[in-house]
Specification:
about 325 residues, alpha/beta, Rossmann fold, Alpha-Beta Plaits, about 50% helix, elongated
């Protein structure tokens, strides 16, 4: 574990550095409070910190308060070293945000035990952060394809349309439906169908820009949000995805099969009122035209504003105001 020592005394710094290095810590050294603060603001800042109370630039308690005010994650465990031993000094040090307090001259065994406790706290906080991130992924991602799930992709669409209307820029959606997907399930089994969905997700994700969003809309359908794309650019992007699916056969354990999809596109120009449900409905109508034209093709329809009745229908069906 990385550990920062901040002490203006060269002798104290050296003794601590040698001791802590022998104990297996990766030691970073600062000669005053200002240098320590610069180190603590870095992305790879140490999670364990030993601060001398009295330092030029910034004192130990001042640094504690600055670290706690910033509230950066992962958690920074701070141990204050000082010659001050009065009760009010201990209270002041802990009140500034320090986690522990050691009076000079300190016993090495006591320091080792206190740092061990700090290490446990830092490790526990890292585990909690990892668990929280895992839960966030489970709540926002589709479990099979790891794409955005339906709720998340609709939320992304709402935000991108709001930004598009605010900035007067285009925003497009593409609805994708895998062709003859039921035949894959029927002929090769649902495990093969899962592989097909995963491979389709991977190929489409690799075909879009980093700031585009690909989500699983339901079953074998996918919804793609393309910020800043006008109608021609959207059709070009959809065609690249179509070719990415069609060009290389899908290898299943039993066979190698052709792999195609139909694409329906719709674009909001960035001007006038917009409704996410109506934009998806327009793309859905284009998707059905693509299927009626023989599948494995791209069709784009111009965005049509919903009627008052349609707006009420969209809002009644989904909390996002979007329906399929």
């Amino acid at each position: 574990m990385r550990l920062l020592i901040a002490d203006d005394s060269g002798v104290s710094r050296h003794l601590l550095e040698v001791t802590l290095t022998n104990w297996g810590y990766d030691v970073v050294v600062a000669c005053d409070g200002q240098q320590a603060w610069q180190i603590l603001q870095k992305d790879d800042a140490p999670s364990l910190v030993i601060l001398d109370w009295m330092m030029p630039g910034l004192t130990g308690p001042e640094l504690c308060r600055m670290v706690r005010k910033k509230g950066k994650e992962p958690y920074t465990y701070i141990l204050l070293l000082t010659a001050k031993s009065l009760k009010q000094d201990v209270v002041e040090g802990m009140d500034s945000g320090a986690d522990d307090y050691l009076i000079k001259p300190f016993d090495q065994h006591e320091l080792k035990v206190r740092l061990r406790a700090g290490t446990r706290i830092v490790d526990l906080q890292a585990q909690l952060m990892a668990t929280r991130e895992e839960l966030r992924i489970q709540a926002t991602r589709d479990y099979l394809t790891t794409l955005w799930n339906r709720s998340s992709i609709l939320g992304i669409l709402e935000r991108e349309l709001a930004r598009s209307a605010r900035e007067g820029t285009a925003c497009s959606v593409v609805l994708v439906d895998l062709d003859h997907f039921k035949l894959i399930n029927d002929q090769y089994g649902h495990f093969a169908g899962d592989l097909a969905l995963q491979e389709a997700a991977r190929r489409m994700q690799n075909s879009v820009r980093p700031y585009d969003a690909v989500g699983r809309y339901g079953g074998e359908e996918f919804l793609i949000v393309l910020p800043g794309c006008d109608e021609e650019s959207t059709k070009g992007q959809a065609e690249r995805m179509r070719q990415a699916l069609h060009k290389v056969p899908l290898d299943l354990p039993q066979d190698s099969i052709s792999f195609t999809a139909s694409f329906g596109c719709s674009t909001f120009s960035g001007h006038g009122p917009v409704h996410a449900g109506a934009l998806i409905r327009t793309a859905d109508e284009a998707l059905y035209k693509a299927k009626g034209s023989g599948r494995n093709c791209v069709v784009a329809d111009p965005y049509r504003h919903p009627s008052a009745f349609e707006e009420r229908s969209f809002a009644a069906i989904e909390p996002h105001g979007v329906r399929h």
